[in-house]
Amino acid sequence: MPKPNPRHPNFPIPSGPVLRAKGWRQEALLRLLENVLAVGEDPEKLIVYAALGKAARNWAAHRQIVETLTTMDEDQTLIIQSGKPIGLLQTHAQAPLVIMANCNIVGQWAKAEVFYELEKKGLIAWGGLTAGAWQYIGSQGVIQGTYEIFMRIAEKRFGGSLAGRFILTAGMGGMGGAQPLAGRMAGAAILDVDVDPQRAARRKEIGYLEEIAPDLDTALEMIAAAVRDKRALSVGLVANAAEVYPEILRRGIIPDIVTDQTSAHDLVYGYVPKGMSLDEVKRLRVDGQGQLMAASRASIADHVRAMLGFQVAGSEVFDNGNLIRTQAKQAGVENAFDIPIFTEAYLRPLFARAIGPFRWMALSGEASDIARIDDLVLEMFPDNKIVTNWIRLARQYVPFEGMPARIAWLGHGERTALALAVNALVRSGELAGPVAFSRDHLDAGAMAHPNIMTENMKDGSDAIADWPLLDAMLLTASMADLVVIHSGGGGYAGYMTSAGVTLVADGTEAGDARLSHALTNDTSLGVMRYADAGYDEAVDEAEKQGIGWFDLRGS
Ligand code: NAD
């Protein structure tokens, strides 16, 4: 029986032992599709997060996907093109059940305007990253990434602790909503500004945000008091960041860390320009897109100029993956890229070892399955400080949204070992049901994004999309249950290409083979990608782990 979902009553949370599909693999993908809508921002419109990130092209497409997953055999493959099911073909029982290509537009045409046009004609949909591939698990999916960024900054600049430090950020949407909790978990006083009162209320309701301040003065007083007492605190403020950031700078208040996660990638359906009400913006989205884009750009320019002002004044400022620098540069802020991207600044040494955002979902719907796997992770990787610290914190702080799930940054070999151990628990009946494994697309071998993941690569290979394409082919050859090739990214067209994967630990021996091949090869390619680009950590990892990499550097 599905569980009720108070936030979206029409989208219950899948759970229980009863199968509607012909096997657990198909049922798993069906439940993951249901889950991304259950935890999504606007499921009635099929929107999961990031303004337009959709789970399916339209409701007819969604109905056909559900019907096919329910009736298909294990030796068939469902083909999905930008959220629309195209057909079902005979393959074999070790082939993926679902392959997808989402939002891939040929190079010269890969522009936001072309995307909007194709979208209007119903020919394409943007799948976000994990939305269209049915892998999103709520804001938890980015909490650890955000937390690890904050902790790397703590190590780099603040003696390892953020107690008594002030983080300023904006955006409390599907992804950005993770920031207040991640900041609090890192021990800081964090102020998160969002223009939409409903978004702030939602984050408070689910326990990701502690307080909503009535105005800027009060918000700054609350933060100052927490900083003084070295107390962790998350405060939300309903306001426009393009107004609030310059005002805080004008007052000479310099936060220790500044970032932003408004949906700046989307000048029409995402970002809200300063001086405009939400209703006005909604109207312009229909009949004034050009005007709205211009206003968003101008506003982002002020927003980023303030971020640069904080940087000059000594704040640690970084771009958190929303293309705000790119938009600002196009709006004339020539030095927008003085702000570094988080991947290069803090996380690249982890990616070079293929350590990245791995996650698992309890298909039974039982939180006890996640608790058992938490124990397993602590037993299996006692010396992995990042992961053991994270699992303990996540247990204490991170509420589940939708189907119980956990994210943990695991690397090459660790992912496979954990998945096989979980599959054994499923087989022995120790868990209430099978478990699905997935990862963010922002993973070592899986993403080419010259403004996020691969900015300033050592060998200059930032824009080469061969890696995610190879990854998707490799995952298909390695028997993954679902494989997706995805392009677009924030800005919708032309910014990135990524590969996504989902696997089902259904307790079978065939499941062992799928998990082992796909997870091992996925991270092997990640290590190879960074070794090839000249990263010492990756070369070391390839040697240590016996990954079959050909070292042809310099030849
Ligand atoms: P979302 O659309 O769900 O939420 C965006 C929020 O920004 C909304 O709540 C909106 O009200 C608010 N907002 C818009 N303009 C504002 C303004 N001027 N001032 C204050 N608030 C404003 O989007 P999301 O899923 O939270 O993603 C946010 C951004 O982060 C996107 O650009 C997305 O592509 C990016 N992202 C980056 C990563 C990463 O790599 N770190 C991961 C996921 C998402």
Characterization of the model:
There is one protein chain. The protein has 555 residues and is an alpha/beta fold. The protein contains 18 helices and 17 strands. It has three domains: 24-120, no CATH class; 140-345, Urocanase like domains (Rossmann fold), CATH 3.40.50.10730; 347-545, Urocanase fold (3-Layer(aba) Sandwich), CATH 3.40.1770. It has helices at residues 24-38, 59-71, 112-120, 140-157, 179-185, 197-205, 216-228, 241-250, 278-287, 289-312, 324-330, 342-352, 367-380, 385-397, 414-428, 466-477, 509-532, 536-544; strands at 47-49, 53-54, 76-81, 84-90, 98-102, 166-170, 189-194, 211-213, 233-238, 257-258, 316-317, 356-362, 405-410, 435-439, 447-448, 482-487, 497-505. A hairpin with a 3-residue loop joins strand 1 and strand 2. Helix 1 packs antiparallel against helix 2, helix 15 (414-428) packs antiparallel against helix 17 (509-532) and helix 16 (466-477) runs antiparallel to helix 17. It is globular and about 65 Å long. Nicotinamide-adenine-dinucleotide (NAD) is lined by residues 41, 49-51, 142, 170-176, 193-196, 199, 240-242, 261-265, 270-272, 320-322, 442, 452, 490. Residues 138-346 form the Urocanase Rossmann-like domain. Its cofactor is NAD(+). Catalyzes the conversion of urocanate to 4-imidazolone-5-propionate.
